[in-house]
# Entry
Amino acid sequence: MPRDLTPSTIENTFVLKALTERTRLDSRSFNQLRDLDISFSSTDYGVVDVKLGRTRVIARISAEITQPYADRPYDGLFIISTEISPMAAPTFEAGRKSEDELVISRIIEKSIRRSGALDTEALCIISGEKCWAIRADVHFLDHDGGLMDAACIAVSAGLLHFRRPDITIVGVGSRREVILHPITERVPVPLAVLHVPICVTFSFFDVRKASAAIAGLPGKDNMKEADDDDVEEENDSSTTVLVDATLQEELLRHGYMSVTANTNREICQIQKGGDMPVEVGKLLSCAEAAIMVAEKVTKLINKRLKEDEARRNVGNLLVEARAENDR
Amino acid sequence: MTVLDITRPSPASAITSFLYRVDGSASWKVGTAHIIASVSGPIEVNKRDELPDVATLEIVVRPDVGVTSTREQFLQDRIRRVVAPVIALELHPRTLIQIVVQIVQSGDNKILNTISLSASINATYMALLDAGVPLRSTVSATSIIYYTTATSDGSKTNVVVDPTRAQLEQIEKDITSVHTIAYELKGGKIERLLLSESVGSFTEDQVFECYDTAANICEETNRIMREAITKGVQQKSRWREA
# Structure
């Protein structure tokens, strides 16, 4: 396996030519997401398996009791680890951070941790002494583009699915003790998730650049491209925007923008990369599209969470545990 | 030479060929353990890791939760000891065979490593098969745990094979010894012992009991693997039927 994933010239021109003809290789429309599948483990809480087309990611959420940072005694800890192993693609080296990895981990940090998706104050047990440390480990199993989108969905879904053990504080002052109740004894407690961030990546292609690359090649069809104005008239500009690129499309794009949004119509983070300038109007409509995707995906996550809950509560034991009256 | 009439509390199951960027992949589930292994090879190797007469074998073990620690180093070492003699490394000199073992759910408690180890060996072997790496024989592994229970007239020794985590938690404080055993099989029958890791306090009789019990369990595991592979090959060859 070559140490870098650059596709061949033939592949390049095929994909770009298809784009100038308004076609994607998998016949999706330009703003269509790939098939998204979210499944939870039936045995453990906080284990999420996300499939976005061929990209596959597993997130594991776990909790431990530890001491809070000295300068933030009222906050718990929340750590996200996004190490990519050679399983995702042999071009990733074990133990060495590739550039992609740095970008992904930065975006996930901003999307989930910095945006305050998890309420860290609710993780405090005894201020300055004990707090919960929540850990999200993302395992990348298969790389077909959209690693950060899939990772964001996986961690968000995982935080909603996870249950931490219940605790009781007994005693007073310096003789306080924290009793940790195993999940077999007491029903575990969900985390305080304030919002559900969903990341969507938009890939930009400069149509003129693409056409020029193709026009330079022999073949009678290619001669037409140079004066074919259809694409530009439809687009109102020379920028093609694809939502949720596959790996092949990712390697060929001229620029990208990752937008993380939630169902409150808030943008949690925006990261624009690559070498291509894009008009503001296009970027704003991308942000709008991201909000719609966030709504769709959050709906799917909630649906799957409900199904998982139903599977676990055969016999409706947890329903009986509620204190609400029927009326 | 006593063979215990014992079966796994929960069946093992395997799936192969589900990852697209690597040459072979396998998922092994037993009890509450879930391990995914991937194999790429023979592929290009770094000049400094290149070996002139055999393929270089790289094994990476990633934990389910937390940072990589000495536990993963231990697993990596034991998996290598089992798998290196079985792969025909001399057929592909100056290349790399890269194995990545991702522990999705370890099935172990905080102190034990046995279930991760035996499940990882099984997953790795199936991924090697799926990748078409030349192998000399079949491999399968299992975990056997001895523990005591109190009875009216003293204590009784019990044995469990590949326990689930719930069972492990129940017997945790009474575990006396833990054995991870891997066998090489040819034609579905045990040939040679590849790995024998025993921790705890146990008698010589118990060890031999383990070897014989594990032989039966490993032959059954081998049958499960054959079924999974047959299904995988049928799936991959379905274009022929049209």
Q: What stands out?
A: Chain B is about 30% helix and 35% strand.
